[in-house]
């Protein structure tokens, strides 16, 4: 009966979490916040009993591995190339500055609450929540369907996908300092950081290239679904091998995903669909597990409540803006409004809570208190920042409406021709209103037209109207783009 009861409870949790996700979309709230809330609700008064920090840490490791790999797969290198330098600085220096500012703030204000927290412990608490959360940032930015000016979206995704290694290293180093009671060896910490980052980046790129080669050359077309299993195995192997070799596994899987997502690979669309669904499942399971793990009664004790609210406000309005403005100071291309927005979208989520489990599993004194404070700060961040990601962009004048695809088309990977969607404007109709009057490049065809809710296949004498959406296939997409730009069409939607 135990197994059956476990499945019933698990199915109920997943079902409620999916409904919560739907409600979150309508309310404009982060879905992950409601997943966390569902876990807390079911865990209240031990309605569903779950108290294994070790198992929650394992779930977090697996989930974060896939979330980062999938995030890398969905990131176009052409988009992050212009923001590579500020993204890397934010992911390293920004994390260190945040940890230092918040850690010193905790150390100085703890006596006001009647708490005696050492400086290393205060820095450890700050280090666990020093990075932005990739799961939160990826899910919120990609479900909002909102464009951001000045390349802010790829910058934020790059930062959130690559700053976990820095926070992880700080957390691990400080856990050992607090556990052993030794002083922090700065040069040893710098050496550890360099080794982890270099090995993580190197193994990530190498395993990413190897994964692409394996997927493209292994022949299992008799059962194409096994390609998803193979890619999953490659992602887990990349993380595990890199970690065993003293590199940073989280950085390795993100870079491996970036390599896989930007090279031609067999069954790309099927693999992307599988990983998208699997990532959502793991995010739901992770946030439910973390919600079940927390004791709500401990969360609302005065010590935790005042410290959590204080850190949350301090981090949002002081620490994050200071670290952002210092880190982005050398990059003059960003306006002040852009820097304000980057500082605002410093969401905390699952990653800080996962890192807060490390002191628990290492039996650090006051680890329960640290975990509860970090959990509360995460809730505050998701409530305050997560619900205003779109509104803040609008208020600062940095947002624009993304063009949505009219033609929901999935292009098979083996087809070399490229499909694009363009909208007819007045300049296109100057030489005549029929399709044959429009001068398109060679090896280019208009295969379908969308007008007033109707789709139809055009002929040469089909009369086009301003506002018609055309599905175009071309063997020379660069020439097509150049041609339509001459006609004054700026937005060309490429089919993927």
Mean pLDDT: 83
Q: What integer value in Å does the Rg equal?
A: 25 Å
Distance between the termini: 47 Å
What are the secondary-structure elements, in order, as H or E? Answer: HHHHHHHEHHHHHHHHHHHHEEEEEHE
* Beta-strand share of residues: 5-15%
Shape: elongated
Number of H/I helices: 20
Number of DSSP-assigned strands: 7
Task: Output the structural class.
Answer: alpha+beta
Strand order of the largest sheet: 5-4-6-3-7
Q: Oligomer, anyone? A: single chain
As a percent range, the share of helical residues equals 55-70%
Q: Report the sheet with the most strands, covering strand number, pairing sense and barrel closure.
A: 5 strands, antiparallel
Low-confidence stretches: none
Question: Keywords, please?
Answer:
496 residues; alpha+beta; 64% helix; 5-stranded antiparallel beta sheet; two-stranded antiparallel ribbon
Reconstruct the topology from this structure:
Layout: H1 2-27, H2 31-43, H3 53-73, H4 77-80, H5 84-109, H6 119-128, H7 134-143, E1 146-148, H8 152-162, H9 164-180, H10 186-217, H11 226-244, H12 249-262, H13 268-293, H14 296-299, H15 302-327, H16 336-344, H17 350-361, H18 367-384, H19 389-395, E2 399-401, E3 418-423, E4 444-451, E5 454-456, E6 469-474, H20 477-486, E7 493-494
Antiparallel strand pairs: 1-2, 3-6, 3-7, 4-5, 4-6
Helix pairs in contact: 1-2, 2-13, 3-11, 3-12, 3-13, 3-17, 5-6, 5-8, 5-9, 5-15, 6-9, 7-8, 9-10, 9-17, 10-11, 10-12, 11-12, 11-13, 15-16, 15-18, 17-18
Describe this structure as you would to a colleague:
It is built from 20 helices and 7 strands. Helix 9 packs parallel to helix 17 and helix 15 packs antiparallel against helix 16. The longest helix has 32 residues. It is an alpha+beta fold and 496 residues long. The model has no long low-confidence stretch (mean pLDDT 83). Helices cover 64% and strands 6% of the residues. A hairpin with a 2-residue loop joins strand 4 and strand 5. A 5-stranded antiparallel β-sheet has the order 5-4-6-3-7, covered by helices on one side.
């Amino acid at each position: 009966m135990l197994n059956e009861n476990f499945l019933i409870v698990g199915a109920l949790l997943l079902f409620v979490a999916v409904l919560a996700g739907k409600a979150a979309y309508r309310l404009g709230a982060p879905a992950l916040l409601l997943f966390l809330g569902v876990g807390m609700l079911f865990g209240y008064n031990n309605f569903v009993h779950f108290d294994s920090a070790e198992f929650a840490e394992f779930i977090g490791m697996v989930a974060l591995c896939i979330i980062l790999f999938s995030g890398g797969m969905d990131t176009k290198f052409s988009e992050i190339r212009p923001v590579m330098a500020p993204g890397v600085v934010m992911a390293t220096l920004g994390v260190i500055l945040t940890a230092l500012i918040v850690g010193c703030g905790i150390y100085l204000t703890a006596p006001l609450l009647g708490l005696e927290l050492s400086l290393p412990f205060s820095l450890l608490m700050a280090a666990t929540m020093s990075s932005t959360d990739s799961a939160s940032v990826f899910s919120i930015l990609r479900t909002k369907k909102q464009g951001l000016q000045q390349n802010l979206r790829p910058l934020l995704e790059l930062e959130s996908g690559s700053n976990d290694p820095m926070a992880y290293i700080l957390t691990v180093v400080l856990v050992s300092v607090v556990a052993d009671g030794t002083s922090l060896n700065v040069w040893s910490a710098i050496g550890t950081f360099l080794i982890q980052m270099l090995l993580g980046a190197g193994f990530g790129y190498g395993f990413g290239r190897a994964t692409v080669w394996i997927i493209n050359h292994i022949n299992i077309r008799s059962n194409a679904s096994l390609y998803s299993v193979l890619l999953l195995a490659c992602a887990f192997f990349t993380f595990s091998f890199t970690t065993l070799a003293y590199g940073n596994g989280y950085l390795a899987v993100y870079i491996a995903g970036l390599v896989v997502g930007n090279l031609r690979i067999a069954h790309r669309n099927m693999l992307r669909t599988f990983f998208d669904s699997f990532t959502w499942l793991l995010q739901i399971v992770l946030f439910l597990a973390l919600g079940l793990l927390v004791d709500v009664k401990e969360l609302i004790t005065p010590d935790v409540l005042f410290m959590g609210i204080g850190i949350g406000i301090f981090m949002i309005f002081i620490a994050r803006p200071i670290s952002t403005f210092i880190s982005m100071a050398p990059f003059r291309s960003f306006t002040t409004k852009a820097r304000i927005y980057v500082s605002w979208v410093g969401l905390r989520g699952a990653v800080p809570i996962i890192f807060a489990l490390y002191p628990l599993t290492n039996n650090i004194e006051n680890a329960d208190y640290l975990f509860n404070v970090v959990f509360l700060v995460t809730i505050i961040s998701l409530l305050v920042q997560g619900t205003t990601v779109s509104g803040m962009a609008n208020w600062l004048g940095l947002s624009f409406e993304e063009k949505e695809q009219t033609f929901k088309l999935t292009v098979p990977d083996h087809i070399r021709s490229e499909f694009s969607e363009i909208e007819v404007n007045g300049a296109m109709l100057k030489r005549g209103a029929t399709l044959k009057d429009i001068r398109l490049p060679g090896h280019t065809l208009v295969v379908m037209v969308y007008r007033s809710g109707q789709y139809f296949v055009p002929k040469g004498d089909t009369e086009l109207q301003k506002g018609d959406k055309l599905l175009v296939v071309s063997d020379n997409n660069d020439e097509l783009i150049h041609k339509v730009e001459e006609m004054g069409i700026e937005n060309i939607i490429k089919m993927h």
